[in-house]
Amino acid sequence: MDVKIFDNDVEAGKAAFDIIKTGMDNGAKTLGLATGSTPVEMYKAMVASDVDFSNMTSVNLDEYVGMAPDNDQSYRYFMQSHLFDAKPFKETFVPNGLAADPDAETKRYNKVIADHPIDIQVLGIGRNGHIGFNEPGSPFDAETRKVPLTQSTIDANARFFDKEEDVPRFAYSMGIGSIMKSKKILLLAFGEDKADAIQKMIEGPVTTDVPASVLQNHKDVVVIIDKAAASKL
Ligand code: GLP
């Protein structure tokens, strides 16, 4: 893994976008995108740039089950407001939280990924080492599926909702097997509360107990972190 440490998330977000730009100059057509607070500065850099994304396709990692796209906590809403409304893409894919049939929705999304191989996948990381919503114990070969969220993730995400009971209990998540097929992976993490997960991801054993540790097996991973997230390395 290529680990790059920055003073703050603004500098790191710009550096992440620079890597994406270089990838686009070299022919990348499909970006795998992530939500959460972590990539926000990278999206700001994308929006502030003069780069045209109208020939690009995006495939997002995950969505809450039961969440309407126009709900301001949905990941579709997040992507529209942080990036797509300002920078139109050719096509944007996010799992449909309102799908009536979960099996059909996960099959549909797996076909989306197969039809649009991901050139560069952006990832954040959960405090417990999850990527997407692949919680500890998730199989390394999984494709998109409906997954229960752990209590630690529910607690971490409760800050975005009025009450803890409002946090969805299930999500659709791209699986680790699909993430690992991306040609290049950019994992971003900021703040001291990510330091443990980052240390285990980079220096610990490769184990399903720490889903992000699987990235040690990928040949092109850039880890973009601030000093606080790097403090346990
Ligand atoms: C969420 C998302 C992940 C994200 C992680 C960290 O649960 N499903 O994709 O990377 O948690 O979120 P944040 O960036 O807000 O710390």
From TrEMBL:
The keyword tRNA-binding does not apply. It comes from the Bacteria. It catalyses: alpha-D-glucosamine 6-phosphate + H2O = beta-D-fructose 6-phosphate + NH4(+). PROSITE patterns: GLC_GALNAC_ISOMERASE. Pathway: Amino-sugar metabolism; N-acetylneuraminate degradation; D-fructose 6-phosphate from N-acetylneuraminate: step 5/5. The active site is at D62 (proton acceptor), N128 (for ring-opening step), H130 (proton acceptor), E135 (for ring-opening step). Gene3D superfamilies: 3.40.50.1360. GO terms for molecular function: glucosamine-6-phosphate deaminase activity; identical protein binding; isomerase activity. NCBIfam families: nagB. This is Glucosamine-6-phosphate deaminase. It comes from Lacticaseibacillus saniviri JCM 17471 = DSM 24301. The gene is nagB.
